Amino acid sequence: MMGKAMAERGIDPELVLCSSARRTRDTLDLVLPELRIEPEVVYEDALYHASPAELLARLHEIKPGSSRIMLVGHNPEIQAFALDLTGSGPKHFRDRLREKYPTAGLAVINFASGLWSNISVNSGTLNLFLTPRELRT
């Protein structure tokens, strides 16, 4: 369902960083077949309940060349990280992100900088926030 919604909106990650935990792999397995392109997928033990600071450090390690990254992680850390990165964007998306980040939720955050190493707290624009519940209605 979320993969189809991503494909319909032209959201095509080139690289997916996914926690190696079973539930994140299972979630990703539902999304991948519905995407329009086949991204490189990297499973990492270090993403299991990584803190927002650790997640930011991981993004800083991404080499130039991948401009669209999808991070599949765990709450409450993934919600806190998305909130940390978001400096602007439509108020209704930011309010909903603050309220709850459900399993298989999707936050699309864009950055002006073309380098992952330049990303910082509040440097992103939250352009979309989707939840599975919204897709069912």
Report what the structure shows.
- The protein is of the alpha/beta class and 137 residues long.
- It has a single domain (2-136), classed as Phosphoglycerate mutase-like (Rossmann fold, 3-Layer(aba) Sandwich), CATH 3.40.50.1240.
- Helices cover 36% and strands 22% of the residues.
- The chain contains six helices and six strands.
- The protein has helices spanning 2-8, 22-31, 52-60, 77-85, 91-99, 132-136; strands at 15-19, 40-44, 69-72, 86-88, 106-111, 124-130.
- A three-stranded parallel beta sheet has the order 2-1-3, with helices on one face. Strands 4-6-5 form a three-stranded mixed beta sheet.
- It is globular.
- The N and C termini lie close together (12 Å).
CATH superfamily: Phosphoglycerate mutase-like
Q: What does the largest sheet look like?
A: 3 strands, parallel
Percent of residues in beta strands? 15-25%
Helix-residue proportion = 25-40%
H/E series: HEHEHEHEHEEH
| Termini gap | 12 Å
In the CATH scheme, the class would be Alpha Beta
Structural class: alpha/beta
Determine the number of helices (DSSP H or I, runs of at least 4 residues): 6
Radius of gyration: 14 Å
Give me the count of strands: 6
Name the strands of the widest sheet in spatial order: 2-1-3
* CATH fold node name: Rossmann fold
Shape: globular
Number of domains: 1
CATH architecture: 3-Layer(aba) Sandwich
Low-confidence runs of at least 5 consecutive residues? none
